[in-house]
């Protein structure tokens, strides 16, 4: 779980991560050239490499040896070299907007590899995905060279793509969808391949394996289709341009392919009727994929960690006023939330243990009084605001993770109040919302303080270091921060499953070492007019790294590919502006947690929703639809509030 940042400047280096797993390499606005040995060895696997920035160039051989591997190239970056994916399972290589790659790519051993070339990206060289169940996806990209599938049951999906070379579907059982694209040569060297060609030009097509099926609509195939003497079959509409065929049986279709109809559609009696091909995706029935924004209801556990010292009175009021809309906003989406509230200042206190009763959470939050004892609710909080300690206790990783909770509102079957550890649901996504106007002080509870003997005072020292040493007066604070980050960034999709965490918060960048601990809030980069929507995680992380805060909580979360944003709590100082700031903040949090990690999910067993009636949220600006030959796709709606409209159907 090491993170290496390579920033601006000319760099000549090799990279080796022997016996290391889940490492992250981030190259931003750098010009990197490998040494003559020229190989970056990423052993053990589960590594992530991000290359971004219009001035970024990288020349190297990347050779991950095992596990999952993710390569992201974006923001106009250029890469030359070789990608040798050795034994990787579900390797994911993406060349994004206006990027370029010159070299070669090959897989060996791991199934489910994916290569994506998007939005003006260019790939020059050859690629071979050889392990089976692999995919090649292009949209508005250019591939110059030869692409080969060799493992079987692979898929290619091309939209407005250009391939100057050969696309070879390799072993049997592959599917290829081609829309508004150009391909120099298409090869089907094995049997039982399915090709769907629409508004696409392919100079030559060779099907050598036998028993292939080709469905054509408004396509241009000047070289015809050569079946190689095998029993291939072409389906096309009556009236389409004739196609020269060799060893291919032709079947006509005369139906009108109006907008919204299935392609290929059933045939009219005037031509030879043929049954439609078997659908690739199930759009109806018990095994149907779900194409809504969220394919299944998400469990979400939300913990508020709030500084309840005296200086926070107005800030807590402002946050509390926006809490009602936030909680109800979650309940109206494909989310089953639970809420907990922890107050800091002296001993962290569990005021509300996890509950799905949103009315209780709203009521309790409204009664919180900073720096005061509220009988039957919470005790007095002031000074020693140990936010990081409270987070580790919430995750059960502190030596003492049992919260003092004399008045805790814990909703158990018999409605009894108990103190103890927070119990997260095993598969629930996790969201931590932080609200503080100070940096995080030394742990308050003795057992939690004892593991950092170097901390000599309540507040962080004037000299900060990210070098960890629990016995050093400065390094102890870095150790505490690293332990907190480790709890927040630990996740696994393999048993035992550990769900992902998102962190959002208000912090005070002008107080003490808040920037070093939480990150510089001024680095938050968003394109929306409200300053919250349209978040750019890469730009935010690059800013944090350039200012020396890449190892802050926010920087580490973003480097791990997790959701994390911090805003200045001074935005709440103006009463006239605080309400809109809080609303925009919570709206952005709701947006972030309501987007599923996978839209193409099969529906799981029905989930019983508890508490008050919750209505599944439907997106306002897009229809999420299913096509049996395409899968899930979106169609924009024309709506006054969506800032979009269709013109002549486009």
From TrEMBL:
Residue ranges annotated for the VWFA domain, each copy included: 301-441
Xref: InterPro entries: VWF_A (IPR002035), vWFA_dom_sf (IPR036465)
Pfam families the UniProt entry points to: VWA_2
Segments traversing the membrane: none
Gene3D superfamilies (UniProt xref): von Willebrand factor, type A domain (3.40.50.410)
This protein's name: VWFA domain-containing protein
Provenance organism: Sexangularia sp. CB-2014
